[in-house]
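Hey L., structure's done. Input below.
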Amino acid sequence: MDRSAAELVDDRSGLGGMRDRLRERIAATPRYRWYALGVLTLVYTSSHVDRQIMGILLEPIKLELGASDTQMGFLIGLTFALFYATLGMPIAMLADRSNRRNIITAAVSMWSVMTVACAYVGSFAQLVLTRIGVGVGEAGSSPPSHSLVADLFPPQTRGTAMGVYALGVNFGLLIAYLAGGWMSEHWGWRATFIAVGLPGVLIALLVYLTTIEPNRGASERVTGLSEGDGSEGDSKAPSFRHVVAYMWRVRSVRHTVFGSTLAGFVGYGFVLWMPSFLIRSHGLSPTEVGITLALMTGVVGGLGTFTAGRLADYLAERDVRWRVWVVALAKAGYVPFLAAFFLIDDLWTALLVYLIPAFFGGFYLAPTFALIQSLVSLRMRALAASITLFVLNIIGMGFGPQMVGILSDLFAPRFGNESLRMALFVLCFINLWCALHYYLAGRTLKADLQAAGQHVT
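Output:
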């Protein structure tokens, strides 16, 4: 005898509920949480290898294509950032409403294929188009990844988890500099693009076949750290306008976004032009540049990135405002060392001084990522991360490298081959402005976290 439609719906709802509970239990196990975090960190590493490889390949590409510093600044800055940041928002809105794992899989596949395509360009215009393709692919990775990490790790350990995830920046730079420098010198820049692009296809398969889509808000419900009832995970995602208005209204969010944007402006300017600076001003070969920056940015910088997240979690147990104050102190404190690095002619003395800026350069990443996820509601998480990255990347990635290129060309008549050195020297003082915003974010952080439903000690 046929069952009624209502009974069938009840059965389906029961099966769906069992599936959701099973996913929540799997996502709550420490082994899976750390495995999934490792895979997401691998994804983030791949994105930064394909993004930052341009830094080590800048000089040979410029020479072959006959471009100016301003043109190359446009290529590695605004060309990539405009599409990467803008498309990140609609993709993030989709991620707040659908399967984040599948979005990440598609994103990794696209940027990997487009990186390989960079090897086959015949002109500067064609390279611009392929780098746009890389930016479009990478737009779909970080916002859903941030949202997944927030669902896997509770607020008390979220800074540490984001510190591990943010290591993808340093791992990516290490690989791009170390392997990219050697491959560029021995294989050429075209073969280098192929070598760094192909592994992304395997990473996409790893994401799709071995990770699951956790229930939204799972970490708060399992640990009981949210003051809400946990029902928000099934609510409708708010509109884009609502999320933007909320982020602007909450002062700690606003200052954190502004601070991270200025940190990105400086950081991307340094990362993408530092290889050229070492080649022009210190006479290093591409391989020597790769080894030097891999050790500095990859290893020393990686230690700093992880330390920031762990330190923010530790100090926040005493006063939650340290989640942003650690960044303010780091950004203001290393400016004298960074300025001195560009004024010292002796390479080994300069590199010794640079150890401190290398350690503190990425100190803003983990605390910023973690804090944004804690200050917004469950169905805002991917979009809030995307809006943060949009502002950071449009201004930071888009105009940071571009500004360095423009200043270098402007300084060239007076400083000649040292014009790039002077451009980078000017850029380092923007860190003081950055530090001010992170300090101001701490002044309202306690109240803003309480308003967001987070338990604050």
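Confidence is low (pLDDT under 50) at residues 1-13, 222-234. DSSP finds 22 helices and no strands in the chain.

-- N.
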